[in-house]
């Protein structure tokens, strides 16, 4: 089945002309620099860009830059005066990403903050930064809940919060899992039961990156009725 999932992703990439030379070069240089191939797929990157465009996002926050592949997809959807802040703990990843972002022509819109993401999030909260319209959480899965809570503080009614890798080949349903990443995702999902500030869904996906999924949450207006 995995080879079919990959073939279908390749078919859509080709027929829908997903990606471009700068995005492909970002992947090639990330691989050459020894970065793990755990970026989103082209189809997923395009989805992030379409979601950002759909809400006319002007400010985007990303947690987990890697080589900047998802960063470039989302930055492309911003208006010229838009901003994307992306958080990365690893200096080498950030350096590779900066080169990829420069080549893609979006450096004027993108800032990489090199530090543990929780520190950058806390200082943005302390500094009262302008809220973000869209947040993409895609770093250490163990801290997904902390990142989600901080993202809520840094967003506004109508903001979208997307969390990658919430299915992990189906392991998310294993309550007794010894995988810290799975437990991290489960803490987030369990917390959402009582979280009245967002309306959320989770979608399972298959494709070039195997079987996984993402969570999509919309920050609600106070008093909004939650659908479903
Ligand atoms: N969003 C990227 C993939 C990110 S991979 C894409 O789709 O193209 C996850 C990244 O999170 C890695 O680069 C890793 O170094 C970074 N990361 C892991 N723990 C982190 C932490 N505590 N703070 C910030 N970044 C972290
Ligand atoms: C892993 C991380 C990711 O962000 C991803 O999309 C796939 C895999 C990982 O750490 O295994
Ligand atoms: Mg991911």
- Bulk shape: globular
The whole-number mean of residue pLDDT values reads: 97
Bound chemical compounds: S-adenosyl-L-homocysteine, 3,4-dihydroxybenzoic acid, magnesium ion
H/E series: HHHEHEHEHEHEHEE
Specify the biggest β-sheet.
Answer: 7 strands, mixed
Find the CATH superfamily.
Vaccinia Virus protein VP39
CATH class category label: Alpha Beta
At CATH level 2, the architecture is 3-Layer(aba) Sandwich
Helix content: 40-55%
Number of helices: 8
The value of Rg in angstroms is 17 Å
The span between the termini is 33 Å
Strand order in the sheet with the most strands: 3-2-1-4-5-7-6
Label the structural class: alpha/beta
In the predicted model, the low-confidence regions spanning at least 5 consecutive residues are none
What can you tell me about this protein's structure?
The protein has eight helices and seven strands, in the order αααβαβαβαβαβαββ. The chain has 228 residues and is an alpha/beta fold. The protein has a single domain (2-162), classed as Rossmann fold (3-Layer(aba) Sandwich), CATH 3.40.50. Strands 3-2-1-4-5-7-6 form a seven-stranded mixed beta sheet, with helices on both faces. α7 links the parallel β4 and β5. The model has no long low-confidence stretch (mean pLDDT 97). The protein binds S-adenosyl-L-homocysteine, 3,4-dihydroxybenzoic acid and magnesium ion. S-adenosyl-L-homocysteine (SAH) is lined by residues 38-40, 64-66, 69-70, 87-90, 93, 116-117, 138-140.
